[in-house]
UniProtKB/TrEMBL annotation:
PROSITE patterns: PROTEIN_KINASE_ATP (PS00107), PROTEIN_KINASE_DOM (PS50011). Pfam families: Pkinase (PF00069). ATP binds at K58. Residues 29-301 form the Protein kinase domain. Keywords: ATP-binding, Nucleotide-binding. This is Protein kinase domain-containing protein. InterPro entries: Kinase-like_dom_sf, Prot_kinase_dom, Protein_kinase_ATP_BS.
């Protein structure tokens, strides 16, 4: 093992025998514990020695391909919003990046759904409103997340149902030059990916709204709207908007169904809409009050689904997923043992493991 540089030193932690840390980091923060570890990074819980505030520090090896991390740092350095994870500072050493970020000690929303089984409509409304508010801010700053899902939505330092939600993991996000610019990269998490991405159709930031519809369905039912053992069948379900509201699982009202349907494009498919030009931004929709609070007014932002009778299966790769119907293993909670528990901030390992289709 090469000797540590003058910027690095070893520190013993209860969780691990020794970790090489940046001396500047150790001078400013007290390192408390390891809270998460992935294939390409690990996360520490630290405390500012002066303010006594807690933060999360992600350690990334510089000898790895950390292009996604650089992309995330570039975007987070440009944004500041209550519902977007906050980047504090970055320390660079010859061998590692030390990324200091806001600590989301409430954990992943995915884990909360697993623990609760499902959200009530009121709880889901609060969460979706925070998610849409943060998403509106990103879209107004020409940033498309492209990988919204429950495992990158974290809860702030509170356990209440209305605790602050934080959008994290910007490794696949993209900042465009204009609202009209379209993207062509195929990326995202399979169960949350929008149809036009699967069909290789140039898309805009409204693909994030599709993911919001999937998240809303999961919150109020505890199951995935699109889920199948076969990846090709999963993509067919997505493109044809083939999902069901099971009475034994669904906790929302008819208005909540209308909201989800509007985001997932079920009515749009029936009307055979073509890909439209850019719609009004999310802030306009947030300001429109309706019976189902401010959230249901987003029904028009998802009119972007390209209708088709079949999915080009040659463009999809196989892979094992859970079933579509709500059998025991199809419920979100039944996957808890198979999913590595999330940490306080996004992890590079997720970018490597799941993104490219």
């Amino acid at each position: 093992m090469p000797p540590p540089s003058n910027l690095e030193q070893f520190q013993l932690l209860p969780d691990r025998p020794a970790i090489r840390l940046d001396s500047r980091l150790v001078c400013k923060y007290e390192v408390l514990s390891v809270v998460g570890k992935g294939s390409f990074s690990q996360v520490l819980r630290v405390q500012d020695r002066i303010t006594k505030r807690y933060y999360a520090v992600k350690l990334v090896n510089t000898d790895q391909d950390f292009g996604a991390v650089n992309n995330e740092l570039t975007i987070l350095g440009r944004v500041k919003h209550p519902f977007v994870i906050r980047l504090e500072e970055v320390f660079r050493s010859p061998t590692k990046l030390f990324i200091v970020m806001e600590m989301a000690s409430g954990g992943e929303m995915f884990d909360r759904v697993v623990a609760k089984g499902r959200y009530t409509e009121c709880e889901a409304r609060l969460a979706i409103k925070m998610l849409l508010t943060g998403l509106d801010y990103l879209h107004r700053n020409l940033i498309t997340h492209r990988d919204l899902n429950l495992k990158i939505c974290f809860i702030g330092n509170d356990t209440r149902p209305d605790a602050r939600l934080l959008i994290t993991d910007f490794g696949l996000a993209k900042q465009t030059k204009s609202q009209d610019e379209r993207m062509t990269e195929t990326c995202g998490t399979p169960e949350y990916i929008a149809p036009e991405i699967l069909l290789r159709i140039p898309y805009m930031n409204k693909v994030d709204c599709w993911a919001v519809g999937v998240i809303a369905y999961i919150l109020m039912s505890g199951i995935m709207p699109f889920d199948d053992d076969c990846r090709s069948r999963l993509y067919t379900h997505i493109i044809t908007a083939n999902y069901i509201y099971y009475p034994q699982f669904w906790s929302g009202s008819e208005q909540a169904k209308h909201f989800v349907d509007s985001l997932l494009g079920r009515k749009i498919l029936k009307k055979n809409y073509k890909y439209p030009e850019r719609k009004k931004n999310l802030q306009t929709k947030l300001n429109q009050k309706t019976e189902y609070n401010t959230v249901v007014s987003h029904r028009s932002v998802s009119r972007l689904v390209i209708p088709c009778k079949h999915v080009p299966l040659h463009q999809c790769r196989g892979g094992r997923r859970g079933p579509t119907k709500p059998k025991g293993r199809g419920h979100v909670g039944s996957r808890a043992a198979k999913n590595q528990k999330g940490v306080g901030i996004s992890a590079l390992s997720r970018v490597r493991q799941k993104k490219r289709l």
